[in-house]
Design goal:
297 residues, D-Maltodextrin-Binding Protein, domain 2, six-stranded mixed beta sheet, elongated, disordered N terminus
Length: 297
């Protein structure tokens, strides 16, 4: 009996030692330790000052998570991001959904981790006295959207029109504006107004209005997410390790993002999840529908 117990404890001890040894070996063999530093860019952060203002907390935590020095790589637009990836000048990039699709078409960049937002939806609103009751009623009407190419305030609404059987190029007159206010809708200059759901909610608040004043005509399906992408010049195993560490430490990374006032509402209840290129096919479909498939070449 004693011998049997002794052998059992010996096996437990041996297995524990093996697990510890394997973990130590895994850490010692980390490809990240071979990297002196990784260069990190954000496709819609213009210049070093904006990077430092909005992403310094994230950079600091990412450096701790990856146990590798992280340096900012400032850019002025997504074209510079694509060029930098092609030339191997940047290692990691945080890109918006539409920017990712364009960058991917010009590089072999690898999507690794998506920054998900549960309420990242496209929305279209009308005035209280509007006779529009469905998306199909927008035929022959004027719709104000955000900047051309913006996922949540332009492409998402175009997809809603397409799903409703409308041709976005001929059935609806679309105006583009970088002003998030409801001014055009309020003044009767347009029949409907489309932005992301959180922009709609914040615009109502700024206007001192309620959903009753500007009811939603429709909400779209969840949109593709912002995504962290890696240079194709990094070793695949290194890319896998970066993704694994980010997912394992997502609570720390998300806290760093939410610590920035500008992101507190935008990324509320966000999570990190494995990224898949096919999740962005909706954007490719819309670009083709509006005749902008040059972006995909």
């Amino acid at each position: 009996m004693l011998r049997r117990h002794f052998l059992w404890y010996l096996l437990l001890f041996a297995s524990g030692c093996t697990a510890a040894t394997n973990n130590q070996r895994s850490n010692n063999n980390s490809l990240l330790k071979e990297k002196e530093k990784l260069l990190f860019a954000v496709s819609d952060a213009l210049g070093i000052k904006e990077l430092q203002r909005d992403y310094e907390p994230f950079r600091t935590v990412l450096e701790q998570v990856l146990e590798t020095k992280i340096e900012f790589f400032p850019v002025d637009n997504f074209v510079e991001v694509a060029t930098a990836l092609q030339l191997g000048l940047v290692d990691l990039v945080l890109a918006g959904p539409s920017e990712y699709v364009i960058i991917k078409a010009r590089t072999n960049a690898v999507p690794i981790v998506a920054l998900t937002r549960p309420n990242y939806l496209a929305a279209i609103a009308v005035r209280q006295d509007s006779d529009l009751k469905s998306l199909a009623d927008l035929k022959g009407k004027t719709l104000e959207l955000g900047k051309v190419g913006i996922t949540g305030s332009y492409l998402g609404q175009i997809k809603m029109l397409m799903d409703a059987g409308l041709n976005p190029k001929s059935d609806v007159k679309i105006l583009s504006s970088d002003d998030y206010r409801l001014k055009g809708l309020k003044n009767g200059e347009v029949d409907a107004w489309g932005r992301t759901l959180h922009r709609y909610e914040s615009s109502l608040k700024n206007e001192g209005a309620s959903e009753k004043d500007y009811p939603l005509l429709a909400k779209g399906k969840p949109l593709p997410n912002d995504v962290f992408i890696a240079s194709s010049k990094l070793e695949p195993m290194l890319v896998d390790e970066i993704g694994r560490r980010m997912l394992e430490n997502q609570e720390k990374l998300l806290q760093a993002i939410l610590s920035v006032p500008a992101f507190a509402s935008k990324f509320k209840d966000a999570t990190l999840a494995p990224a898949n290129d096919s999740d962005y096919d909706m954007i490719r479909e819309v670009y083709k529908a509006i005749g902008e498939d040059d972006f995909l070449k």
